[in-house]
């Protein structure tokens, strides 16, 4: 026999213990008492059948909207993670107790259910079968679509009490609140680094595993992050969605645009603490600081040659792989780095970007300008050993 505490609709308890048997002489319907209380949320009912129907709210139809109030009453005993619904907790618990039979063939990541594997698989294929009827934006899962739908219908009902910033769902609010509390509940088992959300932890873990789940369909190059893949894909499509309002120059990513805008403003916010030289970009400062320290942290795995910055390493690695991912749209000639492509493109456009300050003659490449400058300075870089005669260019020599 299981006992329940009689509760009223206003959630105040009368304190009377009631048996879960049909003949309840102390709690007849006519008295208005509600002896059938839900152990999950405390809501009370007059009839046992009504309680049974209500219990489905927690296990099946989810009509009691805990999410609306930001409640997560179901907590995992193994790891402490909390959930809005019992069904979500039960699914999560399988990750601790049940053998993961659903393994991704691409990256070997395993899942407790086939549906979770199916959703994960879309991160590799880029498949987004769920489309918003209002703005036509596509999503890989119904959960993501539902979350997005609220931006059209419900606005942002979840507000931070600290800074009044509003969010479309309670999980986003909880994640944001950790900025104020400093809470970082997701810890890396390899290096103990902690993160505010599980997504950031998963991304970080790839630095240990070397996993690169995002593959380019054009050239099969793989990436650690989906954002890196999207950026790379633009090298094939030529898409440059970020345009400078000053000069209309377009860029493949917003970061490059922000960096470019400093060429108009002259802003150099990053200063070297040793020599006080200022830079427009943090990467330039970091690169410069290594001229003081001699540090070369980027090492080639093929030949152990080390470099001061990652871009030099990537450029060098192409000498081993033969990769030429920068292709000219005019003649399809491919190049190992973007600077070589830009230089080549000038042969089609006849663009002359190197100007002599003495006489204003412009040249397509810096080497031609250097040779020309010798006509002003009188410098003769090439000398004949037999006649000891000097020449300003290799061609004349």
UniProtKB/TrEMBL annotation:
Alphabetical list of Gene3D superfamilies matching this protein: Classic Zinc Finger (3.30.160.60)
Keywords: Metal-binding, Nucleus, Repeat, Transcription, Transcription regulation, Zinc, Zinc-finger
Cellular location(s): Nucleus
One family name in Pfam for this protein: zf-H2C2_2
Chief subcellular location: nucleus
GO CC annotations on file: nucleus
GO biological process terms on file: regulation of transcription by RNA polymerase II
GO molecular function: DNA-binding transcription activator activity, RNA polymerase II-specific; RNA polymerase II cis-regulatory region sequence-specific DNA binding; zinc ion binding
Domain spans labelled C2H2-type: 36-63, 74-101, 102-129, 130-157, 158-185, 186-213, 214-241, 242-269, 270-297, 298-325, 326-353, 354-381
InterPro entries, alphabetized: Znf_C2H2_sf (IPR036236), Znf_C2H2_type (IPR013087)
Descriptive protein name: C2H2-type domain-containing protein
Organism: Equus caballus (Horse)
């Amino acid at each position: 026999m299981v006992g329940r505490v009689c509760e009223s609709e206003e959630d105040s308890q009368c304190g009377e213990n009631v048996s879960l048997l049909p003949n309840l002489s102390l709690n007849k319907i006519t008295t208005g008492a509600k002896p059938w209380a839900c152990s999950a949320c405390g809501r009370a009912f007059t009839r046992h059948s009504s309680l049974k129907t209500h219990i489905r709210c927690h296990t099946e139809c989810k009509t009691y909207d805990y999410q609306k109030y930001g409640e997560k009453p179901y907590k995992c005993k193994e790891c402490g993670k909390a959930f809005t619904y019992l069904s979500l907790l039960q699914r999560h618990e399988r990750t601790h107790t049940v053998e993961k039979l659903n393994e991704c063939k691409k990256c070997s990541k395993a899942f407790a259910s086939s549906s979770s594997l199916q959703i994960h698989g879309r991160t590799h294929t880029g498949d987004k079968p769920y489309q918003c009827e209002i703005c036509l934006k596509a999503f890989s899962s119904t959960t993501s679509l539902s979350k997005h739908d609220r931006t059209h219908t419900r606005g942002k009902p979840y507000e931070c009490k600290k800074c009044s910033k509003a969010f479309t769902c309670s999980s986003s609010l909880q994640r944001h609140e950790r900025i104020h509390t400093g809470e970082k509940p997701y810890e890396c088992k390899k290096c103990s680094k902690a993160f505010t959300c599980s997504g950031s932890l998963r991304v970080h873990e790839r630095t240990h595993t070397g996993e690169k789940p995002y593959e380019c369909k054009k050239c099969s190059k793989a990436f650690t992050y989906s954002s890196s893949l999207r950026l790379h894909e633009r090298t094939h499509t030529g898409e440059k969605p970020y345009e400078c309002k000053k000069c209309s120059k377009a860029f493949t990513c917003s970061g490059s645009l922000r960096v470019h805008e400093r060429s108009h403003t002259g802003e150099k916010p990053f200063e070297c603490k040793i020599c006080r030289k200022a830079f427009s970009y943090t990467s330039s400062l970091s690169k410069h600081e290594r001229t003081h320290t001699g540090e070369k942290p980027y090492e080639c795995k093929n030949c152990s040659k080390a470099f001061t910055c990652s871009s030099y390493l990537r450029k060098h690695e192409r000498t081993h792989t033969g990769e030429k991912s920068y292709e000219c749209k005019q003649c399809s000639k491919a190049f190992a780095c973007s600077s070589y492509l830009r230089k080549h493109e000038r042969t089609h456009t006849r663009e002359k970007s190197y100007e002599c300050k003495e006489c204003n003659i412009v040249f397509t490449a810096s080497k031609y300008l250097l040779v020309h400058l010798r006509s002003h300075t009188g410098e003769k870089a090439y000398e004949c050993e037999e006649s000891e005669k000097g020449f300003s260019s290799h061609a004349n020599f």
